[in-house]
Amino acid sequence: MYFLAAARKDAGEIVGEAVLKIINPSERQGEIGFGVAPKYWKQGYATEIAGTVMDSAFQHFNLHRVAAQCSPDNKGSIRIMQKLGMAREGLLRDIHFARGKWWSTVIYGVLD
């Protein structure tokens, strides 16, 4: 599992984060995650962060499949996953319990 911080080159300021999980090395499966501080939303940072981590998953780690997931209500993240060529693979209903309620998640994936 790799955790990364994303910083602006000009200011060195942290704008977001990313994670790459190698889920099953023998089957070359991985999952990415990304987040951006709210003041940097809608400026292209999340797309750049997610794209860079996904490129690394395929080029450096030679993965065959990369997945990502988010809340079905998170239209921004869904749009980013679609921009990166990921296709919706499914909906997991009430899969996480946090902050006193159940949360569903949509899964997107892309193959090399």
Describe the structure.
The protein is of the alpha+beta class and 112 residues long. The chain has one domain (2-111): 3-Layer(aba) Sandwich (Aminopeptidase), CATH 3.40.630.30. It contains two helices and six strands; from the N terminus they run βββαβαββ. It has helices spanning 45-59, 75-83; strands at residues 2-7, 14-24, 29-36, 65-70, 87-98, 101-111. The longest helix is centred in the middle third of the chain and has 15 residues, at 45-59. It starts with a strand and ends with a strand.
CATH superfamily: Gcn5-related N-acetyltransferase (GNAT)
The CATH level-2 architecture is identified as 3-Layer(aba) Sandwich
Q: According to CATH, what is the class? A: Alpha Beta
Protein structure class? alpha+beta
What's the N-to-C terminus distance? Answer: 20 Å
Overall average residue pLDDT: 95
Low-pLDDT segments, ≥5 res:
none
Helix content: 10-25%
Order of helices and strands: EEEHEHEE
When the domains are counted, the total is 1
- Counted beta strands: 6
Largest sheet, in brief, is:
6 strands, mixed
Quick recap of the structure?
The protein is an alpha+beta fold. The chain has helices at 45-59, 75-83, and strands spanning 2-7, 14-24, 29-36, 65-70, 87-98, 101-111.
Task: List descriptors.
single chain, about 110 residues, alpha+beta, Aminopeptidase, six-stranded mixed sheet, 6 strands, globular
